[in-house]
UniProtKB/TrEMBL annotation:
UniProt domain CMP/dCMP-type deaminase: residue ranges: 5-141
Keywords assigned: Hydrolase, Metal-binding, Zinc
Keyword check for Hydrolase: yes
Species assigned in the record: Shiella aurantiaca
Family designation: Belongs to the cytidine and deoxycytidylate deaminase family.
InterPro entries, sorted: APOBEC/CMP_deaminase_Zn-bd, CMP_dCMP_dom, Cytidine_deaminase-like, dCMP_deaminase, dCMP_deaminase-rel, Deoxycytidylate_deaminase_dom
Cofactor: Zn(2+)
Extent of the signal sequence: none
Keyword Metal-binding: yes
Protein name per its UniProtKB record: dCMP deaminase family protein
Length: 160
């Protein structure tokens, strides 16, 4: 029996975590690891204890802020990082697996927190119709290792 690579295990977990999202527009999952151990997980949606967009705002999604973005949402990578820090887990030198490459705001947080590597499944720029992945460009410019996941997702039955 072949043992799965850690990249495959963590990306499959991120994809499955995305299914927990309450966002009506896009489901994103993230797994934060260090030394082959999971230190935190996250998915996008409003802060715990506030709203569930798929229940409270079924048709249109949550209200928009002045820039047209979800006014309630935390991104998956933000949720994973915040949970780790809240629980006194050191994230410096960790690796982040995420189903959608980080936006520029998340990239600044990732860099500031000392995360050394980001492995992503899909492009944020392609999803948003942007010319480039600003978040990935930022991370690369400042020395964070970026990799597009090219493995085999054998234990995922439905991609969102």
């Amino acid at each position: 029996m072949m043992k799965p690579e850690f990249d495959d295990i963590y990306m499959e977990l991120a994809v499955n975590l995305a299914k927990r999202s309450h966002c009506v527009r896009r489901h994103v999952g993230a797994v934060l690891t260090k030394d082959t151990r999971i230190i935190s997980i996250g998915y996008n949606g409003p802060p715990a204890g506030t709203h569930n967009c798929d229940i409270d705002f079924k048709e249109e999604g949550c209200p928009k802020d002045s820039k047209g973005s979800c006014s309630l949402a935390l991104h998956a990578e933000q949720n994973a990082i915040l949970y780790a820090v809240k629980n006194k887990m050191g994230v410096d030198g960790s690796t982040l697996y995420v189903t959608l490459s980080p936006c520029i705001a998340c990239a600044r947080v990732i860099y500031t927190m000392g995360i050394k590597e980001v492995i992503y499944l899909k492009s944020y720029a392609e999803y948003k119709g942007l010319a480039s992945d600003e978040g990935l460009d930022f991370l690369q410019e400042f020395g964070v290792t970026i990799k597009k996941y090219n493995g085999e997702l054998s234990n995922v039955t439905h991609m969102i």
